[in-house]
Amino acid sequence: EVQLVQSGAEVKKPGESLRISCEGSGYSFNDYWVAWVRQLPGKGLEWMGRIDPKQSESRYSPSFEGRITISADKSMKTAYLQWDSLVASDTATYYCARRSTGLDVWGQGTTVIVSS
Amino acid sequence: EIVLTQSPDTLSLSPGETATLSCRASQSVSSIFLVWYQQKFGQAPRVLIYGTHNRAKGVPDRFSGSGSGTTFTLTINRLEPEDCAVYYCQQYGTSPTFGQGTKVDLK
Question: What is the DSSP string of A21-54?
């Protein structure tokens, strides 16, 4: 079965760093880009960026450029989304998804709460 | 950046009726890169339609997509209770974007 499994929920304080993960299985991880999508509480979907695991090449939405880092470890078949300094407005659910014909396989989502 | 505007924001229909959801782009979108997703409450989104009109695996034929250029449509025939969800369009060209979503609920 093709699936993406994300790391668990996180509660962090403003200013802290965080890395969440997304492990792929059931397919050739290197052959598909992995995207990250944000969903603020009660709101819609926002494209954050994506990584090509084979090339380790990342591209970011202008709205998120400079605030996040997307990376991948091919040997671990895992993509990562990282913040160096969280703010309260980063509170959201974050999804990873495989880019094929659209985003055809999604992770279950990781909820991140940033609160003092 | 291409802005996608969906209408209406909310659609309230009776079971068995037809839902017509619109997605308008601020500039032309390649039909290959236009996708529709369904997101039910508390779940991750799932792809319904890709390449404007191709149904994803397992999607009932009650769902159909059409359009070109800057205007795209998702049609849901014979609405069922399980279709209550938020529907998003997305273009995944060079700088992907999503529409703001249309909520479909049943009367």
Answer: EEEEESS-GGGSEEEEEEE-TT--EEEEEEEETT
Q: Do B50 and A102 touch (CB under 8 A)?
A: yes
What residues have CB less than 8 Å from B54, skipping those under 6 apart? A101, B65
pLDDT < 70: residue spans in chain B: none
Residues of chain B that touch chain A, judged by Cβ-Cβ distance less than 8 Å: 1, 35, 37, 39, 44-47, 50-51, 54, 56, 86, 88, 90, 92, 95-101
Positive or negative CA dihedral for B35, A34, B100, B5? negative
CA distance A46 to chain B (A): 6
The token pair at B48 is: 């319904």
For position B94, what pLDDT does the model report? 79
**Tell me: the pLDDT tens digits for A59-91?**
999 999 999 999 999 999 999 999 999 999 999
Do A103 and B44 count as a contact with CB atoms less than 8 A apart? no
Q: Is the pLDDT of residue A10 over 90?
A: yes
